[in-house]
Amino acid sequence: MGNNHEQEESLLNHSHSSRMGGLRTIPFIIVNEACERIASYGLQPNMIIYITTFYHMEAAAASVLLGLWSAVSNGLAILGAFISDSYLGRFRAVAIGTISSLLGMSVLWLTTVFPQLRPLPCSQYQHGCGGTTVSQFAVILFSFGLMSIGAGFVRPCSIALGADQLENKENPDNERLMDTYFNWFYASVGISIFLGVTVIVYIQDNLGWQIGFGVPALLMVLSVSVLLIGSPLYIKAKPKGSMFTGLFQVAVAAYRKRNIDVQLNYNDDCYYKAPESKLPEPSTDFRWLNRACIIQDPHIELKPDGKVSDPWSLCCVENVELMKCFLRVLPMCSTCLMLLVTFSPPLLIYQLLSMDRHILPHFEIPAGSFGMITLISLTIWIAFYDRALVPLLARFTGKLTGLSPVPRMGAGLALGIVAAALSAITETIRRNKAIDAGFEDDPNAVINMSCMWLAPQLVLTGMAEALNVVGQIEFIYTLFPKTMSSFAAAIYTFGLALSSLMGSVLVSVVDSVTSAGGNTSWLATNINRGHLDYYNWLLTFLGVINFLYFLAICWFTEHHHGGRSSFSPEEEEEQSEDRHLHGASL
């Protein structure tokens, strides 16, 4: 028994002599990530209420600001992963990110403690509300910026830091151990989001902003403390370079060799290939990129040992093909941006505040927690599809996954259109009831209409996200090799950043156009006078246009490269099981 225990410790902690890494480090990493998620997701739902109430901003302007905050946070996740892989290493990146989030939430909490950091209440002005000063606005932006930096470093690096602790090729059960870790990690993320949008939001609604913002700050103190306590036990892998660097090198090398005639027939020896490469030559599509791997002068471009002298002037065939894969997936991934915009309706919380949210005589659902319906719908649909529909569909399609990724993406887009149309119809009914009750000029009034009227559109949104997002990630896996599976998450994160930016631009344009000439904006803070239903119909129309664009991209993809990867059939076969596992996890 003693020998078996020692062998198990050896497998988990890499060697008998090593005291670094292993399962004992995982609780520190998961608690660090969980606290960050609870804190950050708990702040988001009610933030628009805080900004409009205490900073005297219109709802549309506040929605634009929060959309830009989301875009920066997701965009910095790509940058954070790059800096971590190339320069800092994962532990330092997570540590910097956690401390940055702590500072950002502390600054946000201070705005609730010191009145000087925010404008005076409107009741203290004799003639309307005063504006926010530059310094006051800079403080809130500074807190948002620190939290964005924190999220950008923590979220892409935390899960990889945990994987570093368990990576042990000598352990025959390492793959199963890693799968268990990923499942527990994603489960902790889901539980954390649930606690954030329920418990933290409830505290904000019932105990006030000081406690409601103070609890997330305390959670970040715990997050930093737990991470640093476990620091002596972590395996701190050195940065080895980012996968993004190779893509940039291909673009630069192809531009530097732009005078090469790629129409000429080059033999295999003219292309630089990595050791043990299975690709004899680059593919013919995006041929202009092939210049990057053509050897012009081996005496200058290659070292005596056969390695590249300057990777910014000569790249291997594999990196060129990875760049081509990236260009192939971009058009299809771009079809999801409009759907992601519809997932974040700008003034949903104002609708909920104007409706009856009681589910028991003495308990009402916090308006900021109502989005949990989408998460629950997404989770149930993924489980139902995987366990019930996939075996049934597999009999008809002959595919282990039931439907291929592209039809699932299309089904998600279609459900998104239905959800947007349903939200427009529901808002029309809500607005008419408010006006009929005489509340046109009273946006704080609660009408006799249950908030559960909004549940169907949120359920459809969850189903649309489950179909489209998982389908999108699996589509990316079909084009990239197994070694680049993490690139799918990076592309999706980049899509979230772009969609948040698109949503902010759309809200800003609609607000400016519809309020011109002294008219009431569609997205007025008083939604009883505005026309949020018109905005939802606009989203529906844009969703239809986007679906037609999706069909055009499908036709183009099928007729030009058939949606296939340019990598070897053997490597594609190796990926198939990995894609299934990742698709189920995501």
UniProtKB/TrEMBL annotation:
It is a multi-pass membrane protein. The keyword Transmembrane helix applies. It is found in: Membrane. The keyword Protein biosynthesis does not apply. Belongs to the major facilitator superfamily. Proton-dependent oligopeptide transporter (POT/PTR) (TC 2.A.17) family. SUPFAM superfamilies: MFS general substrate transporter. It holds the Pfam family PTR2. Residues 577-586 have a biased composition (Basic and acidic residues). The chain crosses the membrane at residues 60-82, 94-117, 137-163, 184-203, 209-235, 329-353, 365-385, 406-425, 487-514, 534-556. It comes from Capsicum baccatum (Peruvian pepper). Keywords: Membrane, Transmembrane, Transmembrane helix. InterPro entries: MFS_trans_sf, POT_fam. GO terms for cellular component: membrane. Its main location: membrane. This is Protein NRT1/ PTR FAMILY 1.2. One of its GO terms (molecular function) is transmembrane transporter activity. Residues 566-586 are annotated as: Disordered.
